[in-house]
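Forgive a beginner's question, but might I ask you for the amino acids of a protein and the tokens describing how it folds?
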Amino acid sequence: MENMYHVFILALVQGLTEFLPVSSSAHLILFPKLFGWQDQGLAFDVAIHVGTLCAVIAYFRRELILMSKDWVHSISGGPSTPNSRLAWAIGLGTIPAGLAGLFFNNFIATQMRATWIIAVTTLIFGLILGIVYLIARQQRDEYTLRLRDIILIGCAQAMALIPGTSRSGITLTAGLLVGLTRQAAARYSFLLSIPVILLAGGLEGYKLAISHAVYNYQALLFGFIVSAISGYLCIGLFLRWLERFGVMPFVIYRLMLGIALLFIF
């Protein structure tokens, strides 16, 4: 990418939408199509995803340090603690998405990026989020997750490989469905994104490294910085938004976006 204005907009879109229940991948596909921009390329997508990975690590750095310490103690014979159990929940919850990415990523990347698919998934999973939010009990925090809860949320995250589904949105939906509060479901969703983005970014980064292609490193660095800063700010704002307003504004946005895409394309 040569146009720094495009770089800024797309990196900002990634930083804001990665952690909102509206699908970052869908917006990164749609923005170039809507405005007639050249496709940003895989290298840029990897750079801005690494930016949001750094954002969530930085935001939850204290929790991650505590979880890491307690997890190491637990595997070396120490007692199980809420932090060590949450660390195991993040690891186990990543397995379904890792397997799905291993077997279906190429098919999804080449066959499921059509606009009508994005429109339909945006509508369907937005509607499901709204319904679950209205009926969910919302009584527990992320430290009380049981194995069946982890499996359900992990399988939901695997479905987010389909553009328009929204990784944040579908894991938030699954978290609400198993009885987590909206803030707890969002926090677990954010933490669950760390190994997924790390694995996906590492795989795609390796492919890029062995391709010996030439990249605009200035654009990649700029996109990384913008997505990291905007992603960090978005996490805190979204958690406060959830506490005050819930998810229904995002449900309405998804329904409006899905309908608009069906008409436009």
Q: What stands out?
A: The chain has one domain: 4-264. The mean pLDDT is 89. Residues 4-264 form one domain. The first helix runs from residue 4 to 17.
